[in-house]
Design a protein that fits this description.
Layout lengths: L2 H15 L2 H7 L5 H23 L2 H4 L4 H24 L2 H8 L2 H8 L10 H19 L10 H23 L7 H20 L8 H28 L2 H7 L2 H12 L7 H30 L1
C-alpha cells in the first residue's frame, strides 16, 4: 500500500468523526460509560467478523500485551471523556475543543523518529487553532462557568486522542485487526465502571437507538480501523493537518440538524480552519517532495 493511499484511507475516519457530535446528541440520555459499552460492542463485533474473513486471528497472537493495553485505554479514554463532555456542555463548543487533537498531532508527530515540525506546520496549526477558538469563544454566550467541567474534559479528550494517534506510529507493526481487541477491551472496561458509577438509562426512542447503532458502526467502529491504517502507513502530519476539516464538518452537521445556531462567526472560522489546514498540508507535501528529490 502506498503512503498516499493509506493517508486517503485515514481521511475516511475524519468524515465519519464529523458525525460523532450529532449522533452523540441523538443518543441522549444514555450515560457516557453505558454508551461506550454499547458502541464498542458493536464496533468490536464488526471487527471480529472482518478479522475472521481476513484470516487475522493468527496475527493477533503475536501482538505484545502493551499494545493491547495502550489501544484499549486510548479508545476507552477518548470516548468516555468525549461523551461526558457533550453531556456537560453544548455540543458545538465542547466538540470543537475536543477537535484540537489535529493541532496536537501535527506538533507531537514532530517528536517521532524521521519526522520534523516545519514552520508551515506551526503557522497552519496556529491559524487553525485560531479558527477553532473563534467558534468556541466568539458570538453567542461564549464560555459559561457552569460549562467549564465539560470544556475541561473536552481538552483532556483532545490530549488523549492526539497522544494515542502519535504513539500508534511507534507500534506500527501491530496489525490493524488488533483494533478489534481495542474495541472489545474498551467495552469490557466500560461495563463494570458503568454499573458502579452510573444509572442504567437506555435510549428512549427509535431515533435514539438509531443514533447509538450508527455511532457503533461508524465513528466508534469503522473509523478506528481506517484511522489505524492512516496513522501507521500514511503521512501522519498531512493526515493530522487535514483533520482540521473535522471540527468544521462536525459544526456544519450540527447547524444543518438544528442543534447549533448558524452565525457569522462560523463563516470566518471556516476560512481560518480551512486555510490553516491547507498551509500545514502544503508544508507536508513540500517536505515529501524534498525527500523524494533527495
Amino acid at each position: 500500500m502506498t503512503r498516499m493511499r493509506a493517508t486517503l484511507i485515514g481521511f475516511v475516519a475524519v468524515i465519519l468523526w464529523a458525525l460523532l457530535a450529532l449522533l452523540t446528541v441523538g443518543s441522549a440520555p444514555t450515560p457516557p460509560l453505558l454508551l461506550n459499552t454499547i458502541c464498542f460492542t458493536i464496533g468490536g463485533t464488526c471487527g471480529l467478523i472482518w478479522t475472521y474473513h481476513s484470516g487475522g486471528f493468527a496475527m493477533l497472537r503475536s501482538v505484545p500485551l502493551r499494545v493491547y493495553i495502550s489501544g484499549t485505554l486510548g479508545l476507552f479514554g477518548y470516548h468516555a471523556l468525549y461523551f461526558s463532555a457533550l453531556r456537560l456542555a453544548p455540543a458545538a463548543e465542547a466538540g470543537l475543543i475536543a477537535y484540537l487533537w489535529p493541532l496536537l498531532i501535527v506538533i507531537l508527530s514532530g517528536l517521532l523518529p524521521g519526522e520534523e515540525v516545519r514552520r508551515g506546520h506551526l503557522i497552519g496549526a496556529a491559524i487553525g487553532f485560531t479558527g477553532a477558538a473563534l467558534i468556541i469563544s466568539g458570538g453567542g454566550s461564549g464560555f459559561r462557568i457552569d460549562y467549564l467541567p465539560g470544556y475541561g474534559l473536552a481538552l483532556i479528550c483532545a490530549l488523549t486522542w492526539s497522544s494515542y494517534s502519535v504513539l500508534s506510529r511507534l507500534v506500527g507493526d501491530a496489525p490493524t485487526q488488533s483494533v478489534t481487541v481495542f474495541c472489545l477491551g474498551a467495552a469490557a472496561l466500560s461495563l463494570p465502571l458503568h454499573l458502579i458509577f452510573e444509572d442504567t438509562v437506555f435510549p428512549q426512542s427509535a431515533l435514539g437507538w438509531s443514533a447509538t447503532l450508527l455511532l457503533g458502526l461508524g465513528p466508534v467502529g469503522l473509523a478506528f480501523f481506517v484511522w489505524d491504517i492512516g496513522v501507521k502507513q500514511g503521512d501522519i502530519q498531512l493526515l493530522g493537518a487535514a483533520s482540521y476539516a473535522a471540527p468544521l464538518l462536525s459544526t456544519l452537521v450540527l447547524v444543518m440538524a438544528g442543534v447549533a445556531p448558524l452565525s457569522a462567526t462560523l463563516g470566518i472560522a471556516a476560512i481560518l480552519v480551512t486555510g490553516g489546514a491547507m498551509i500545514a498540508a502544503r508544508a507536508s507535501l513540500r517536505k515529501n517532495a524534498s525527500s523524494t528529490g533527495a
